[in-house]
Sequence to fold (81 residues):
Amino acid sequence: MALIITDDCINCDVCEPECPNEAITPGEEIYEIDPNKCTECVGHYDEPQCQQVCPVDCIPVDPENIETEEELMEKYHKLTG
Fold:
């Protein structure tokens, strides 16, 4: 599963530096998460770091990008080579 950032984002900039895959970038209005890079921190941490630091709790699972733990680990291996 990839995560998404909702319109509740306040552009506080605390999530971007926490992402080990550099999946979070500034969008036109709010930060965005690239689903091709988001592993929900699988392979790096036990929990998604962006969710841990978000002060407004605006980073849920993206229902359009559901992936298993195994798929996330495979993506992690591809990203980290």
